[in-house]
Amino acid sequence: NAGVTQTPKFQVLKTGQSMTLQCAQDMNHNSMYWYRQDPGMGLRLIYYSASEGTTDKGEVPNGYNVSRLNKREFSLRLESAAPSQTSVYFCASPARWAGAGETQYFGPGTRLLVL
Amino acid sequence: EDKVVQSPLSLVVHEGDTVTLNCSYEVTNFRSLLWYKQEKKAPTFLFMLTSSGIEKKSGRLSSILDKKELFSILNITATQTGDSAVYLCAVVRQAGTALIFGKGTTLSVSS
């Protein structure tokens, strides 16, 4: 999880409550990503940001908003939480290798339970 | 539609067995394929494969890519209980875009 931090690590919400998940990377990367992981579904992209000030929808953006206020931070907001948003959320940032290589490093994850 | 399919979805073996995990893909602008191991926390990187036929090895783990048949395999020899995890396959398209993940293979190694 080199260089990618997330807060909080765990959160319980009631339906309709709002919250913001925070992510920060200290690797000076342009791109940042938010994924959610559900049992049997793998990781699915919610939103991504190719550079500071830009954001784009991923595979499952409904119910979420994001903010990329600076190069280092990328936050994910749930305006009105629903039980279907119970999941583990991962923030990621890429690390490019020489040539065509690129991998992604993940933050430690946020476990969210919506009651 | 781009997709990555892993098989089997789950696998139970005994310590010492050898296992092969499969990953097939259909994506545009393929650049590389990644394998991750996930043990109840964030995925940790195992291998990156960009060229066909070149085996990557790390201890008891190895992986190879076939870009003609669009698949990769991850082999684990002499399995140990510490190998129990979810193994994720993901494909990288053009630089700066999100990964496309398979659903993962859950490996359970019993002692």
Commentary on this structure:
The complex is a heterodimer of chains A (115) and B (111). Chain A is mainly β and 115 residues long. Chain A has strands spanning 4-7, 10-13, 19-25, 32-38, 42-49, 56-57, 65-67, 75-78, 87-96, 102-106, 110-114. In chain A, strands 2, 4, 5, 6, 9, 10 and 11 form a seven-stranded mixed beta sheet that branches. In chain A, strands 1-3-8-7 form a four-stranded antiparallel beta sheet, with no helix packed on it. In chain A, strand 5 (42-49) and strand 6 (56-57) form a beta hairpin. The model of chain A has no long low-confidence stretch (mean pLDDT 88). Chain B is mostly beta strands and 111 residues long. Chain B has strands spanning 3-7, 10-14, 19-26, 32-38, 44-49, 56-58, 61-66, 71-76, 85-92, 100-101, 105-110. The termini of chain B are far apart. Chains A and B meet through strand 5, strand 9 and strand 10 of A and strand 9 of B.
Descriptors for this entry?
heterodimer; A: mainly beta; B: 111 residues; mainly beta; 0% helix
Task: Summarize it.
Chain A contains no helices and 11 strands. Chain A is an all-beta fold and 115 residues long.
The largest sheet of chain B, given as strand count, sense and whether it forms a barrel, is:
6 strands, mixed
Q: Write down how many β-strands of chain A occur, each being a DSSP E stretch of 2 or more residues.
A: 11
Gap from first CA to last CA of chain A: 29 Å
Most extensive interface, residues per chain? A-B, 30 and 22 residues
- Rg on CA atoms of chain B, Å: 13 Å
Reported for the largest beta sheet of chain A, the result is: 7 strands, mixed
H/E element order of chain B = EEEEEEEEEEE
Residue windows where pLDDT falls under 50 for at least 5 positions of chain A: none
Strand content of chain A: over 45%
Per-chain topology:
The complex is a heterodimer of chains A (115) and B (111).
Chain A: E1 4-7, E2 10-13, E3 19-25, E4 32-38, E5 42-49, E6 56-57, E7 65-67, E8 75-78, E9 87-96, E10 102-106, E11 110-114
Chain B: E1 3-7, E2 10-14, E3 19-26, E4 32-38, E5 44-49, E6 56-58, E7 61-66, E8 71-76, E9 85-92, E10 100-101, E11 105-110
Parallel strand pairs in B: 2-11
Antiparallel strand pairs in B: 1-3, 3-8, 4-5, 4-9, 6-7, 7-8, 9-10, 9-11
